[in-house]
Amino acid sequence: MKASLSASVAARRESWRQRIAKIIALIVPLLIGGVALLLQEQVQTTDRLAAAEAETQEKRNLILSVFSAHQDIETGGRGYVLTGDPEFLQPFDKGTRELGRIEPALRRAFAGQPEDLTELAAISELSHDKREFTDRIISLQQAGDNAGAVALIRNKGGKRLMDGIRSHITSLLKRENDRLTEVSARSQQAISALRQVTFSLLFLLLALLIIAGIAILRTLRAREQALIQLEDVSLRRQAVLENAMDGILTLNPSGSIETTNAATTRLFGYREVELDRRDVGMLFASQPAIGEFARELREMHLSSDGAGTAREIVGRRKDGTEFPIEIALSAMVLNEGLRYVAVIRDITERKRVEQLKSEFVSTVSHELRTPLTSIAGSLGLLSGGAAGELGERAGRLISIAQSNANRLVRLINDILDIEKMESGRMPFHNSELDLSAALATSIEENRSFSDGYGVKLALQAPQVPVWVRADADRLAQVFANLMSNAIKFSPNGGTVSVTVSPGARYHRVSFTDEGHGIPEEFRSRIFGKFAQADSSDTRQKGGTGLGLSIVREIVQRLGGKVSFDSQLNKGTSFHVDLPALHDGPGRGTPGQEAGLLVCGNGAASAFTEALRRAGYTVSLVGNVQAVRAALASSNYDGIVVDMGLSVGAGIEIIRMVRETARHSGTPILALGGKTGSRELEGDAALVLDWLRKPIEVGRLIDSVDAASRVLDGARPRILHLEDDPDIARIVTEALDGRANVVAVDSLAAARRELASNRFDLAILDLTLTDGDGSALLPDLRRDGEPLLPVVIFSAQDADPETAGSVDACLTKARTPIGALVAIVESLTSPTRTQETVA
Amino acid sequence: MTIEILYVDDEPDLREVATIALEIDPGIHVRSCGSGAEALTILESWTPDLVLLDMMMPDMDGPTTHAQIRRRFGSRLPIVYITARAQEHERQRLISLGALGVIAKPFDAMTLAKQVHELVDRV
């Protein structure tokens, strides 16, 4: 409890950390993206700055080359005038050409800067003047007027022009420089701003990563602690499991063993690995087929009180020894699905003690009965006048003694009955009984008793038979006990009414008296042993205080229950509910009384009616729950499922029918739905016939008739008792396709099979390792009448008495196997079965 | 002198047998009743020499009846238990409650009167 609590707290803390981790995981990429964008921006700004620098440089070069071109022109002009050497004309020409080339470039470079363009225009004008001036000088020189040229130069016109140009150029350069400085400052600013933001973001990123790291570390540590706790819990549980006296197993839904504890291996003598993944059935003496136990698990799970259902069965150790065990099953739902826990207890000792107690009680009771018999006998003789006439007082004393001796005899008989029932040694010979008839007999038998009390007995029962399966003698005991109770507690002149009320799952018999009712405080322990509302009362009524206890034991053994309702001073009703048997004895023949279960809604009522007219007994149920209840309570000869009932319901019903043990072989007819649809793949085999909608009633009835025939013609089940595996195999093979053969190799195994399964024929070998096969014959008879045909198939000749009491006696080696098959077939043919029934 | 005895037992057969057995002795007269409550009513109008009290009775058991008698009629009335539970420790318990004696069931019918005589002589 504590561990799970702290685990849930850890889980909550974990979810808190997980949220933070999620937020961080979202933020971090955003931050990284932001930083990347900022870095890109920074790079672009730097690029722009470099571009601006380059542009300025280019402009400066252009400006400087304008100046140098003018210098060339100046130099050329002056040099030519001073030297008269035409070579100086070369720089002049070059400068002029250069200017012509530069000018448009300049204009392009400074386009959009009107101030600079004005300056350029001024330069251009000055340049024009300068070139004109220089041209004039050169022309004068060329014309031989050197003096004129020199005079012009001295006039300083050229120098003035040149100074003007220089001053403009300087101004341009300065402005350009200023601009560059400004751009550069702005860029620097932007870059430093970007850098700041970037650093902040990076810092944030780092902080987040640190938080995330801490969170992860914490989570890991918490998880580690939780794991340690879990391990502790698990170790503790493991220790409990391992030290438990009881074998504790977990099973998967198919019945395979998943885990075992030490006690399991100790109890059964297997090693753990030998049990792992094996079917749990291997641990039981009556070894069910693989998967059979799983079916029981499922049924247990389906019944509402599935948790911890305990029952006693016989376990089998590895060495083959058998011992009584109590097994308690409960279901649990794990993450990986449904699992079952089986707790197995060795109850050898308990059984031994029970056995001792029961033997003791039984011995004491029998020992008491012997002297009591002499006492009661002697008293009977005395009161009957065997020793001469008795005086009045003597007669009275003898009569007291006699009635008390009789009471003691009844008490001892009741104790013996209870003891036998509790130890399971009371044999029940169940057969199909009509409750109404059984009650009529009981009433006759109790007539003199009720007359003695001046009480009338009235039976109210339906005209039709009300079938149950019960032991006739035990049921009579139940009725006699309840009836005598009701009579004893009725007022003189009162009536005890006995009522039979048929029901779907249970038939009810009620015994109602008009007595004082049961005192409130006594109601809870009325079924207890020696329970007496008022001991003097009970003694006056001559009861033993065990009657109701016996009634309850018997009724429970018959699968029913006893209840009562009582009103003070008005009367009491005791109710016996016994599982209803709707078929009555034997199976109904087709076309007469076959019970059909139709699962469908209102639309199905049309063909239900048609089936009834065709002679079938039809029960119509409309939903899955009702079907489940019907399947649990009755045996049906055939089941018709309307696949259009509701989505998936048809399939569910078909699977349910197949999983119910008693209906696993019942023919199913499916109506409509998506014939052959994918949903029934694999289940299609479960269905005998499939009719499309619209349903033709005639075809439906044909199909039901056919189903009934299939049922009657079902392969007979044959029990073959044979200890030679080779012969067993040969017989099984020879009968393959004609009959289902269950081969057993010992008398014990045969008895187990007979106890749990129905057979249509038995083949017996006489010489067996554990006795003579003919020893099984009494098991195959009831009240001297054979229950099923018996064929002796042995190497040894049967003695004449045995041979005369069986249906056929065949000698191995002398009888060809084909003859055996023929005899088996003739003995199990349906016509013969019907004769037997008749 | 006749010894007057009140016999209290819920079992009618036993009352009859015990009465017959005690009255074999002509010096004993027995009056019997079936419950503690009846006994208390009888004692209102009649004081016997001895009360023979069954221990297990419905409604009011022996010791309860005993206590009621002591409360209403004082401690002079001798009470003797007659019980099927007469093992030594039960006997001791009943004596400690103030019983004069304990007679075990089943009693010997032929010596019952004698046992009662002996007990009465002790008083």
From TrEMBL, chain A:
Its EC number is 2.7.13.3. The chain crosses the membrane at residues 20-39, 197-217. Residues 309-359 form the PAC domain. One of its GO terms (molecular function) is histidine phosphotransfer kinase activity. InterPro entries: CHASE3, CheY-like_superfamily, HATPase_C_sf, HATPase_dom, His_kinase_dom, HisK_dim/P_dom, HisK_dim/P_sf, PAC. Residues 363-582 form the Histidine kinase domain. The keyword Aminoacyl-tRNA synthetase does not apply. Residues 240-275 form the PAS domain. It is an enzyme of class 2 (transferase). SMART domains: HATPase_c, HisKA, PAC, PAS, REC. Residues 593-708, 717-827 form the Response regulatory domain. Keywords: Kinase, Membrane, Phosphoprotein, Transferase, Transmembrane, Transmembrane helix, Two-component regulatory system. SUPFAM superfamilies: ATPase domain of HSP90 chaperone/DNA topoisomerase II/histidine kinase, CheY-like, Homodimeric domain of signal transducing histidine kinase, PYP-like sensor domain (PAS domain). The modification 4-aspartylphosphate is found at D642, D765. Pfam families: CHASE3, HATPase_c, HisKA, PAS_9, Response_reg. It catalyses: ATP + protein L-histidine = ADP + protein N-phospho-L-histidine. One of its GO terms (cellular component) is plasma membrane. This is histidine kinase. The lineage of its organism: Bacteria, Pseudomonadati, Pseudomonadota, Alphaproteobacteria, Sphingomonadales.
TrEMBL record, chain B:
SMART domains: REC. The keyword Phosphoprotein applies. The keyword Transport does not apply. One of its GO terms (biological process) is phosphorelay signal transduction system. The modification 4-aspartylphosphate is found at D54. It holds the Pfam family Response_reg. Residues 4-120 form the Response regulatory domain. Keywords: Phosphoprotein. PROSITE patterns: RESPONSE_REGULATORY (PS50110). InterPro entries: Bact_response_regulator, CheY-like_superfamily, Sig_transdc_resp-reg_receiver. PANTHER family: RESPONSE REGULATORY DOMAIN-CONTAINING PROTEIN, STRESS RESPONSE REGULATOR PROTEIN 1. This is Response regulator receiver domain-containing protein. It comes from Novosphingobium mathurense.
